[in-house]
Write the structure tokens for this entry.
Amino acid sequence: MIYNAKYECMSREDMRALQGERLQKIVKRCYENTEFYKRKMDEMGVKPEDIKSIDDIVKLPFTTKFDLRDEYPFGLQCVPQSEVVRIHASSGTTGKPVVDTYTKNDIDMWAEGVARVMSAGGVSKDDLVQVSYGYGLFTGGLGAHDGAGKLGAVQLPTSAGNTEKQIMLMQDFGSTVLCCTPSYAMRLAEAIHDSDVVSIDKMKLKAGFFGAEPWTDGMRKELEDKLHIKAYDIYGLTEMCGPGVGGECEFQDGTHLWEDMFFPEIINPETLEPCKPGEFGELVFTSLCKEAMPIIRYRTRDLTRLIYEKCKCGRTAVRMDRILGRSDDMLIIRGVNVFPSQIEACLTEFPAFQPYYFITVDRKNNEDTFDLDVELRQEFYSADAAKQLEYVKPLFNRIVSMVGIKPNIHVKEPFGIERSMGKAKHVLDKRNFKN
Ligand code: ADP
Ligand code: ZN
């Protein structure tokens, strides 16, 4: 169901006009309330009055993750603390985390973004939504929680972890919707299938909203088959609020972005010039509604493309292709660009393999090494190297044809690759520790 047809189905012309109005307000707000944007805009010789329509966005400065770190924790906040009702922070694997703060209206807008995604996937007040994203500073848990609340659905805040108990409650309470990372959904699916206590046939699951990390259509099929659900993508980032910046509709043909709240651009990450419509590049977002900490032209480092054709569902909201990965997740091995998600795509083409993998890159004798741990499913597993080779050879050939370099494939025993409760870690680049 379309949650808010006014915005989700707005004509392009009206949407551009609305985005222009909102941009003018946001720019004024940022310029008047933060030293950072005042300085950046003054340096570029742009004044808030120069922003008259959404086309003028290209005159504005970009904001990067480094800027957010420099302004840590509240340098970009535009309201006094008395108006702030919540603070979240992203994991920030190194150094200080990225902080986002929210007014009451911001929390409400964020919940609407998530509600639009869930509603597009058929969720209503009759549903019981199990939120298995982590609760805490991470935006996943509370984001999905508030979205489900907005629809009047039952919120089941299990958070991530405690897998055996999760699947018991899932069956006993009759959860109809599951929200978590695709990695954790796989872990849950596996636990259900291995369990003597619960059975997928006794469950009521019908939909899953998976995001916070890249995943492939191969993984979608696997999750849909194993969990007997329709699996939808949900996308977001802390800098814009959290999950629910966009999500898939029933046609699962691109992730609709809520353009009335978050203005998307695709730029060439090297020249910083806008890409042509439909071209792949780096996704950039401007908050159009955020009160507490609006961000102008945030460089997400996520690589994707935008599709402006109207969707079969009737929504006009632009669609985003699957995220190939973050530019900083891209590995350069022997001069070739490799995205971890390409390995997942290859693996899911072969029924003998689990979609789990771990890449280790190193440098030995002046050459990059590329080791890939994979896991055969129990029923295909054998410790005999000759038998393993039967499965490994076609996978090897597929990876060589897709990414263009040869991996050293190591077959792990079942469960030999660590399962994740949140965002999975797929890579160890040992070259980073050497000079
Ligand atoms: P962190 O930067 O610590 O991972 P966030 O939780 O804010 O913090 O992560 C946001 C990022 O997660 C996005 O920029 C994107 O790279 C990734 N992400 C979120 N949802 C999806 C999705 N549906 N598909 C692919 N990547 C996603
Ligand atoms: Zn659609």
Observations:
- The chain has eleven helices and 21 strands.
- The radius of gyration is 22 Å.
- The mean pLDDT is 96.
